[in-house]
Amino acid sequence: xxxxIKQFTIPYLLVLVGLLASTGLVVAQAxxxxxxxxxTEIPPGTIVVLKNEADRTVEPAPTNAEKLFGVVTSISDNSxxxxxxxxxxxxxTLGQAMAFVSDANGPxxxxxxxxxxxxxxxxxxxSTDKASIGTALQDFAGTEDAKSRKTxxxxxxxxxxxxxxxxxxxxxxxxxxxxxxxxVTRLGESLAGKPVSTTKIIGAVILILVSTIVSVAxxxxxxRTALVSIGRNPLSKKAVYRSLLQVTxxxxxxxxxxxxxxxxxxxx
Length: 268
What we know:
This protein is α+β, with helices and mostly antiparallel strands. The protein has two domains: 2-25 and 201-267; 32-177, Head decoration protein D (Virus Head Decoration Protein, Chain: A, Beta Barrel), CATH 2.40.300.10. The protein has five helices and eleven strands; from the N terminus they run H-H-E-E-E-E-E-E-E-E-E-E-E-H-H-H.
């Protein structure tokens, strides 16, 4: 039993803690995109639609778009990229991205659904009758955070000046399947106290699963070793129980680190 305990020294535990934390952080920060073609240059942040699925061509989403596809991102924004040699831009269709927004339908709050605005390729707070591109992860008031202003014609036929800017959004076009059950997303947002991206929740779930598996494996291994040791030498029962208590404390530490790391991921 003592040999079993020596295998889990403080340096080993620190390495395990680091692996747990890094696993969740890598997944939480991962952003996956695929490459597509465009007939004109489209700047990162533009909301796009799929113009031609056969040749993978996209274009800025028109104001009357019935289905939105994704957000154009730069190559440096994507940790995982699927690229075809002839394509000239990357589009995020699920994950986090910086997107162009306007206050054409009022100020945007974190958690608001976003749809296309009267400006092609630019999002606004969603109207009930328009397709959604995803969820705002930041506020946009259209005051100090505005990068420019433009006069546009609104849906009611009137014209007014609107503010334009960029915010981070969770890209999930309406109709695309979510990777997580709705209750998991709601639980994550409830614990974080704010909208949380799908990738961060996935990272937190992975941390919890890994820490649970490691904890159970350690505990079962310790119990098995303790039973074998007592069977071979009943007089060592006291020392075996003491060693088993030490492993149990280690299991509690590992599981607690996993839970705290998961909470840290969704709070980032």
